[in-house]
Amino acid sequence: MTNSSAGYGALTKLFHWLIVILFAAQYLSGNIMVAIGFNAEFAGIGTNTYYNWHKSLGLVALAVAIFRIINRRVGQLPPWAPTLSGFEKKFIHRVEQVFYTAMLVMPISGWLYVMYGHYGVNLFGLWEMPRPLPRDDTLRDVFKWVHIVAGWVLLAAMVGHIGLVLRHQLFKKDGLLKRML
Ligand code: HEM
Ligand code: HEM
Q: Given 71, 96, 134, 162, which residue has the most CB atoms within 10 angstroms?
């Protein structure tokens, strides 16, 4: 279940692909809801529903990220793939730091943004969550920009990460992808 010298454990693989799916949904819903604006519809789904699902899935992603961080500290990280160059190892190390930071910063900044804006979170359209923070327009704007800028930084890291995996998988044909399957 956990990482070992033989490779990544089942939990790491499960969390990895769960976060890939959740983040894909977040980028899609985030950009759709901002692009269509209020009281609009896209693919038969209204703006409010996009917002509810974006916020709700974002909080689910936060829970997954916390479990993933705990899981990363359990067991032993597998050795580097032998086909990685020294530069690639440094690059992967930095990208992973950005990923683990972003997995926390994205949902927390999103939540703080909607709390200080007093917009609230209607969890999956079923439950209006408490709003423990006072309304503050300056902090609302600060966290909105943290959310947007961190989203772009994370996107750049993802392009680098996927590019490196594809380069190894398709051109070096060393089966790097198999390590996470
Ligand atoms: C967990 C990962 C998350 C990711 C990857 C993510 C990503 C994004 C992206 C890409 C956008 C579009 C930004 C733009 O170009 O304007 C966005 C917007 C937004 N997100 Fe998230 N988000 C996450 C979690 C959350 C959470 C947990 C909340 C709130 C509880 C939230 C609230 C919002 C709101 C309100 C907007 C609209 C921003 C605006 O008005 O421009 N997000 N998000
Ligand atoms: C289609 C997209 C993706 C593919 C094909 C992919 C593939 C991989 C592969 C093959 C590895 C193992 C590399 C090694 O041998 O050490 C890996 C590791 C990793 N990936 Fe991805 N990945 C994708 C998207 C993402 C995204 C979106 C994130 C984070 C937001 C992410 C975070 C990580 C992290 C942190 C590791 C290191 C292992 C761990 O601590 O979980 N990946 N990925």
A: 71
Residue 5 lies in a domain: no
Q: Is the shortest distance between the CB of 61 and ligand 1 below 6 Å?
A: yes
Does 99 sit in the ligand 2 pocket, CB within 6 Å?
yes
The beta strands (E) that lie in 12-66 are given as 41-42, 45-46
Report in angstroms the alpha-carbon separations of 18 from 56, 57, 67, 80.
Answer: 15, 11, 12, 23
pLDDT in tens, 97-146: 999 999 999 999 999 999 999 999 999 999 999 999 999 999 999 999 99
Question: What's the structural domain count of the chain?
Answer: 1
Q: In testing the pocket of ligand 2, which one of 2, 16, 101 has its CB within 8 Å of the most ligand atoms? A: 16
Question: Which CATH number is 135's domain given?
Answer: 1.20.950
